[in-house]
Amino acid sequence: MEIRSPYLRAKVVVPAVMLLAMMGYLTLAIEMGTFFVGNKTGEAFFPLILGLLGIPLGAKILFDAVQEVREEHGGAEQKPFKVVSTPFILSIVSFAYIVAFYYIGLIPAMLGYVFLFMVFFDDEVRQLLRKFIYSVIVTAVIYLLYAVIFKVQFDKIFFGLIL
Prior knowledge:
The chain crosses the membrane at residues 12-38, 44-63, 88-120, 132-150. Pfam families: TctB. It comes from Marispirochaeta aestuarii. With 163 residues, the protein is mostly helical. Helix 1 (10-32) runs antiparallel to helix 2, helix 1 packs parallel to helix 3 and helix 4 (106-120) packs across helix 5 (128-149). Helices cover 66% and strands 5% of the residues. Strand 2 (36-37) and strand 3 (40-41) form a beta hairpin.
């Protein structure tokens, strides 16, 4: 699919999609419930902080991208380009991770997210078992970091179960 509008290029579309994803992320964080449990941070604390920081930063990046495109293409005729790009695909994968986290829990969502990134950034899709094992290790380390060190209490860890 080819489009001529300079504002539909990855430079503008990716920040717009990420801003929408951050808005969804903040909404889900607010719906998660408790930000503090006793004197510890709750499951929604970290997503809330990320959402509150991510939305203004995403808006700034989007605004800068629109300004840059406006300066670059001040009315000159544009060449067609392809809509699907690497940053756009990564934005979709990140949004899918956020939605999956809400519905299936932290561990399966993070495992899939890390695995897809490893496969996506490899020049040749090979050694999938090794990538899966690395994904399991990375997921375990991140879970231990949040659960043990930061003492974040997750509502859904593995398909609705609390470990």
